[in-house]
Amino acid sequence: MQWKVGKVRISKIVELETVGSTRFILPQATKDEIQKLPWLIPHFATEDGRLKMSIHSLVVETPKHRIVVDTGLGNDKEGRNIPTWNNRKGPFLEAMAAAGFPPDSIDTVLCTHLHVDHVGWNTRLVEGKWVPTFANARYLFGRTEYEHWRNHSETPDKRAVFEDSVQPIVEAGKATLLASDAEITDEISLIQTAGHSPGHLSILITSDGEEALLAGDVAHHPCQMAHLDWSSTADSNPAQSAATRRQLFARFADTPTLVIGGHFDAGHIRRERDAFKFIALG
């Protein structure tokens, strides 16, 4: 799946797709509630109201750069709370290469935040050691986000993620810590969107008068754009998360900006005049 935003091309590389079994992350998104939002069907939900979601990376190509936004779960990882996320042997890198993006062709990796399902392919296991997957890339982390998890990864699962997918990047000298409003390229800038995590960042792409918002996990699913108060169980600060959604989506109301989520399965959303009505464009 691809989008064009002026001179920028965005390609989605899927690692894992799911249908249903999402109530643990969005408990208010019952089948009955989802069926009240017919614009979600069939792109983002099934006829019977089960949510469609994915774990994926976005490759952003500008005239000068090739950037991977978020890196999914990764292979060979251990210590994850969800059993199926441990010791994976998936073909993600092969899928990237088949799409025209071999790892050595990537010059930048940008993580919206440092949760388990957004940093996994930062590293790969080589002869028992975690090494940067994208050997020619600089890795960009939000400073607030990085410092939080460096200092507050007390539980075993969080410590495992930091030690196998974040710390090796820093030790390899490939990490750059960013301010929450940094400009990455002429076309790409950051927006502070804390709430899901303490230093969560969203990415604004602007080129030739067109815009796209890579929202990350501000909303796990488009249903949260209609129900701004539906916070995820994974949000570090649910009240702040809801406030961030209100502010962010109000900013792009009634504009042709594409909104591409960190787990939106089928495509993106474009907002219409009615604040709770959207067009699904796969």
Strand order of the largest sheet: 1-2-3-4-5-8-9
Total beta strand runs: 15
pLDDT < 50 runs, ≥5 residues? none
Mean pLDDT, to the nearest integer, reads: 93
Rg over C-alpha atoms, rounded to the nearest angstrom? 18 Å
Largest sheet: 7 strands, mixed
Order of helices and strands: EEHEEHEEEEHHHEEEEHHEEE
Please give the alpha-carbon distance between the first and last residues: 8 Å
Strand share of the residues?
25-35%
Walkthrough of the structure:
It is a single chain. With 282 residues, the protein is α/β, with parallel strands linked by helices. It has helices spanning 31-35, 92-98, 143-151, 156-165, 167-171, 223-226, 238-251; strands at 2-5, 8-19, 52-61, 66-69, 108-110, 123-126, 129-132, 138-142, 175-178, 188-192, 201-207, 210-216, 258-261, 268-271, 278-281. Strands 1-2-3-4-5-8-9 form a 7-stranded mixed beta sheet. It is globular. The protein starts with a strand and ends with a strand. 45% of the residues are buried.
